[in-house]
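Lab meeting notes turned into a lecture example. A postdoc, R.K., suggested we walk through two folding results consecutively so the class can see how the record format repeats. The first protein's sequence and structure tokens come next.
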Amino acid sequence: MTTTTQPESVPRGADDDLAPHAASPGFGRRILSFFTVDRIVLLGAFVVSRIAYGLAGVTFDASGIDYSSQLLDQTLLKDRLLESVWYLHAQPPAYNLFVGAVLKFSPFSRELSFHLAFLALGLVMILVVHDLGRRLRLGRWTAVVVAIVIACAPTIVLFENWLSYEYPVAVMLLVLVDLAARYGETRGTGVLVAAVSVAALATLTRSMLHPAWLLVVFLCLVLYRRPTRKGLALAVLPLLVVLLFVVKNEVLFGTPQLSSWFGYNVRNVVIGPLTDEQKGILAAEGFTPATPADCTVKHPDVPAVADEFKRYQPDYGGDPIANFNNECVIVKFNAMQQDAFTVAKARPKWVARNVGGAVEIWATPSSLNPFVFQNRQKLGVPEEAYRRILLLDTAWDPVIPIPNAWPVKISAPDARHHVSITMLLATALVSVGAIAVLVRWRRRSGARLAVLIGGGTVLFAAFAGTFFEYSENNRIRFVTEPLTLLLAVAIVNFGIAWVRKRRAAGAVEPAVDDSGPAVPSLF
């Protein structure tokens, strides 16, 4: 007998805005409808938590403007913003454009300006985590609790109070996956364009989210739910913006990458962790570091690429701060890349061991990153309780020695290496979940599309963050941490519901079941 199943939908009890409406309400009614009980609770929790963290002494750290190698000189960002960003090769352009726009146009101090911007991102995070949780089949109040726990956690607040691109990218990925879930339910043109635009912005902000990742996200969206021709044409536009910067870098600097740091990063993984004994073996075998090619600055009238050091020098003195966007840095990094490839080809087992060490650093709680050390010290017991109880943070002696990770080690209260069991298990779970959705491609829903793109992004970031970085891997992992935790909770929730359904059914098998699944399936 052939049976039919009803299309999957959001579970009963979902917010009204997840269901179709017969008529579009007026603007005033839309504003009022936004403030559901759920959202009022979320907004209250956000405000109360941020006040509490402020009273505990947490302050916004904008000092990265002075020393961050990811940022151009701040005087150039204020006085020659568009020119400097156009000639930027060390990083994708969006983060420098954002920082420069704030420095150039904000009427407030830089600390207050960035703090307000990051608080706004935090507000977006808590609302999006809740909305995405509902679309991932979490119950009404379960989604509220999960959103509060994730978005108000000490780790989140530490990164919310540090000027770096990790926090904005973490929010972007949550928004992307939420939009993907919406698109899987509605196939709306506006939602598709918004999702691709957010993904493109993430690529233009963080080099780890390579244009190849962006292309895969785009293909997942348009193949999972075929858009209209108009929708497809509009969705391609953000890809063309990214392509513009790829072509620009190829024409101006001879590299299609959005960041010229690849050689530097891969050398840190392949050669950086080697012991003196290993380096001696390489020297005995005839290895000598490649000599950088001769370099003449091709754009001497553009300070962003011509200056060897940043023009602004902070009050605390010290040596001049290197300009990592200097044109001649490219040939130095190309030489590093050549060295890395030579050593990797000669000693692949050494490289595998180094990658294993990178995984060990990657698994460290991100709140132990030295850049958030000062604020973490002010949180004390609450931060440690969160790490110990929810992240299952455990001190350990790494199987593979990682002496290069000493900044992370000394950031821990006990000056030992740590590992988060929760993040290890959650990353594995959501990665397997994405693969399971891909295998069962024909069974489609918004929730499955969210698991596919979200879990796939987590897997991609874990791969890129361990194969092409060595020392700050836990900082890099943070960009997917809130997404990983939310997806893991959703998958576990589905597993529990599935087990309960099986137990309730027992050994009795109905003759005919035309009602569809009692528990909406993620896989």
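The second example is placed directly after the first for contrast:
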Amino acid sequence: MSNAPVAVEATLEVVSPDNTRNQVRLTEFPFYIGRGETGNHIPMHDRRISRRCAAIVLEGSSHLLEDRGHHLGIFVNGKKVERKSLEDGDVVSFGLEDSYTIVYRTSQADASSIQHLLTRMASVAETQDVSGGLGKLNLLLEATRMLHSQLPLGAVLEAMLDRAISITNADRGLLLEADASGALRQRLARRSGAASFPTEAFSPSQTAISMALKQQSGVITGDLHQSDKMLQGAQSVIAQRLRTVVAIPLYAMPRANTNESMIHIRRGHFLGVMYLDSQRPAAFSNLDRQILDAIAIESASILDNARLVEQERAKQRIERELGIARDIQQALLPRGFRNFPHLDISAMNKPCLEVGGDYFDVFPIDEKRTAFLIADVSGKGLGAALLTTMLQGALSGMTIGVEPTLVFQHINQFLCEHAEVGRYATLFFGILDRNGNLEYINAGHPSPSLLRSGGVSELFTEGSFPVGLIPEARHTSTRVKLEPGDTLVLFSDGVTEAADLDHELFGDARLQSVLAGQHDAPLDDLRQKIVAAVEQFAGAASQADDITLLLVRYRAAAQSASPATA
């Protein structure tokens, strides 16, 4: 007999941009996904999606998702993938916030749902009124068909709640949804006859809901006059003259974890509560309770799917906004450096995240003087990027004749007075004229390296505190003389503090070794050599800081200029 593994049966819930849903079963492999054209098992009507962007293949008993060339990439639970084994509940998206998403579901997740209920119907039916039981079962099957329909989420939830009201003969029903903190908000209310009901006018029994949450199971009370004393005495029950109350907590589909020979099934996270009540007493049979449980499971399933899809779209929205921030930040960096008559420039910036806290700038002060700077804001990410933009705007004001030290004092005072910003920055700022006179301010930044006649040194040791750190700090300028051919290598600490897999740092000594003998090398070549050395040293280790380089070479004004690029 063959011992070949049997593939898990699975379905794909396709959620379109208008939030309608369609269930598609995996039946053949490769299973193609792409833009709505012939040959795709799931055709999606979005021109931004590639014709054949992804495929699901069968490997052993697992389903694997493969990127087949979608230009924006394929994402699973917000992470870009080339090839990934799918697990129950995985959300597949296509790098677009307002487009299709696909939720992968295995048949194993249905064990406690409709099919399981139907297998037990024979034994239950013997104690039930046949016509009544079949009628209620029909309501359940109608609700299940709605679940697998292409209707919007709101319509599906309304249908599920309407069927629950009909089965229990309740006056009204309420669906409460849990937020990220677990607090409940009233999402949807209905009343008998499939009619809408304003959620703000609904006052459910908080006692019944609390009891259901505490015991993590449904509170189904057909006659409150014969129920728990605490529930009988609840203020909302008395005020509304309630006789029947149903409160069933909703949990995400449980996940199975295998630990050697033990399989542990844990309850999924809390999603909300399905609540029903009536001013009339009711008699709930075993069948009624099982059908209510089944409807609760199905309601939890669609809420869970909706939550996963919403989380995926939120991730995409954040990624898109970070992408815009990255593009803006990179656009603010100087590009295609002009042909300054007395200096050459080469530079690069590589954020360790989408946006970074490093930046550099080069701009003319007047016809004879050019300013250049490199800055490193504490921290990383969007907060640091916002401060770099503010600094860039403030420092560019020196083009209108503002004294550099006064600008530094103003920035330092502003940041210290707004301590809630919680950021400071190190900067090296210099102004170089045509005669090689360099005036600089070093605000706590690593000293640039000076390449002169084959030697490497740290000439600029004087400096002050970073801006935004010490209110009393005073920033003063220092003057030195450069010789033609002198090269300044300005860098952020992401260069010298780049770490390898053993957490050893690249360090100043290795940087000096790379720079030795390179005083005549073209600046772009030298920049690329530094970056290559850092990357080779770090290897596969991920870096925790931005890497920024700014190379400035002084030349006599009479020398011919050659273009330099970033």
